[in-house]
Amino acid sequence: MRFFLASNGSRAPFLLRCLQRSASGNPKPRRMSTVAPPLRLRCHHLHGLYGGYGYGGSGDSNGHGSEEMQRLVVVMGATGTGKSKLSVELSTLFSGEIINSDKIQVYRGLDITTNKISDAERHSVRHHLLGELDPAAGELSPAGFRALAGRSIVDIAARRRLPVLAGGSNSFVHALLVDRFDLRNDPFGALRRPRAGREEAEEGLQFRCCFLWVHVEPAVLAEHLDRRVDEMVAEGMVEELERYFAVEGTAQRHPGLGKAIGVPEFRGYFTARGGRTAAAYEAALRAIKANTRQLAEEQVRKIERLSAMGWSLRRVDATATVAARLTREGADTAAPWRRDVAGPSVAAVAEFVKEDDNGGHHVLRRRSGSCRTRVVLPSIKV
């Protein structure tokens, strides 16, 4: 198994050891195993540091007895459904920090093409693993993400903050959350072949999770994604890609970032002799739109697969919000978003975090006085 480590100054040796130990449970790199041990065994000593967010009560449904489990809010959904917006709002209300789980957005560069949330839209909420890794250092594997994201979660919890995982790439989400990650087990392989018999039994998770699935009806989402590509072009995506391809061989040196939707589609336009024609330009844009829609469909199928495996996903519907935005420019999207997405999500997370180990409610009192307090945030692009 091949890990990679982005250039990270003096922290590189520590991160390398973190990756090696997560993969094998043994500090010697040559003894790497294909099964990664559960992170909770290495961070249970943080019990009591979590303030109002706390750990769960005694025991849990995953068969871990009385051992306390780290709490984690997980925001899932297809691309373009509003996961980033919801994650920022929840983190603002509940003193959280966000861990990015998009396998392309972990790399530096191509911020428009990869549709990274802007600094302004983050509203000072700290983000982890968002544009942090050197794309030339290699491609981050699910096991590597498990180690890096797990370290971020421990760090966030140690500072009495709420970890919020914003997905992203469901292979990364699965690798991080399962109690024991086995490289040989592809939970989504069954999507590519017929399944016989009943679904597999529920997998044990190494965190106590509050799952939120932001859903948009397929036809509405497809129209929204097509329009979003046009907006990205207006924001400078093509010019960004031109600068990217101006350095010869860049895409070939970036095995992870080079897979971003937009890079393969525009490669011929920018690199082939005589490739910069109007027809080639339009073909590239059509391919980007088609591949983005296909990505969204695949993401939904994988989320449904995780649900069938026993993950308790709470679905919130952003269809009305996205449809209102499509209807006309400047349409009121705040009301349906608050009613259908933010409201139910805030209620779910409030219930999830309200009781600490002593049954207290410090977070909600300290932060907002009541879980019913309305939080008004500036607009964040869906």
Automatic annotation (TrEMBL):
InterPro entries: Dimethylallyltransferase, P-loop_NTPase
The keyword Endoplasmic reticulum belongs to this UniProt entry's keyword annotation: no
Pfam families, alphabetized: IPPT
Record's keyword terms, sorted: ATP-binding, Cytokinin biosynthesis, Nucleotide-binding, Transferase
Any one GO cellular component localisation term in the record: mitochondrion
A GO biological process held by the record: cytokinin biosynthetic process
Molecular function (Gene Ontology), one example: ATP binding
Family, as annotated: Belongs to the IPP transferase family.
Name assigned to this protein: Adenylate isopentenyltransferase
Organism name: Canna indica
